[in-house]
Amino acid sequence: MARLIPIDDPDDPRVAVYRQVRERDLVGRQGGFIAEGEVVLRVLLTRSGPHRAASLLVDGKRLAKLSPLIETLPEAIPVHVAGQAVLDEIAGFHIHRGILAHGLRAPDPGAAALLASLGETALVLVLHGIANHDNMGGLFRNAAAFGVDAVLLDATSCDPLYRKAIRVSVGAALHIPFTRLVPGEDALAVLETAGIEALALSPGGAESLAGLARPARAALILGAEGPGLPPDLLARARTFRIPMATGWDSLNVASAAAIALHELTCPRSI
């Protein structure tokens, strides 16, 4: 059973990893991450995924509700318990959810190994230049909702395990396998080697996504709002567009992903 450790001093070294959450999220945590809130904590502790919890920091008023979950934790995972004021001082701002967890991320498997682990039928989401953490979280939430098997990120995309991205994803970023392409690695070449057909989404796509017969092993490729996908990538991929009303040609990237993934995964009635 987990150890409950009272914390009265914000400078207690046992909770050093939780200090100044906002600032430290920007520079990384040496292979770790911070998860926030009860929903995300339950995903981290109860759903299968590559990453694992190292410790918890909770407001003492939350213990009763969390007790059934905490009782399942091994003794090796300490649960630090503080009052709201001390918790806020540690984090550097008001943690109104009253729950933080420090997690350890799994080693990045690399694109080739991750794709090789997928089955004969697979759906991959490939993200290029996604720099907004809200969008990243929304994309992972959509990926979970529509059964995406893996996510590939280019070298310029932001971290799915940034605290805000995890929260917006409602924990999906913690259990969907993902990997980051190394700088200069060719996403289309990696997909081709793995036998996965690339489907690039763009306002100027040559084909309508509506009615597409999805390949057994497919990758949906999305770019950032505004710049979209690079012209050289679009020139080499099969391109698709989402039909829209006259005068509109694009959506928020997370909204576009939800529509596209729905088209690719939901069977149609005849």
Describe the structure.
32% of the residues lie in helices and 21% in strands. It is built from 11 helices and 12 strands. By secondary structure, the chain is of the alpha/beta class. It folds into 2 domains: 4-104, Ribosomal protein L30/S12 (60s Ribosomal Protein L30, Chain: A), CATH 3.30.1330; 111-265, Alpha/beta knot, CATH 3.40.1280. It is elongated, with a radius of gyration of 20 Å. The model has no long low-confidence stretch (mean pLDDT 91). The strands form 2 sheets. It has a 7-stranded parallel β-sheet with strand order 8-7-6-11-9-12-10, sandwiched between helices. Strands 1-4-3-5-2 form a 5-stranded mixed β-sheet. Helix 6 (133-145) runs parallel beside helix 11 (253-265).
Q: Calculate the mean pLDDT score and round it.
A: 91
Radius of gyration: 20 Å
Number of helices: 11
Ends distance: 54 Å
Secondary-structure element string: EHEHEHEHEHEHEHHEHEEEHEH
The CATH topology of the largest domain corresponds to Alpha/beta knot
The rough form would be described as elongated
The CATH homologous superfamily of the largest domain is termed SPOUT methyltransferase, trefoil knot domain
Strand line-up across the major sheet: 8-7-6-11-9-12-10
Percent of residues in β-strands = 15-25%
Please count the beta strands (DSSP E, at least 2 residues each): 12
The percent range for helix content is: 25-40%
* Contiguous uncertain segments of 5+ residues: none
CATH architecture of the largest domain: 3-Layer(aba) Sandwich
Supply the number of structural domains. 2
Q: What is the CATH C level class of the largest domain, in words? A: Alpha Beta
The major beta sheet can be summarized as: 7 strands, parallel
Alpha-beta classification:
alpha/beta
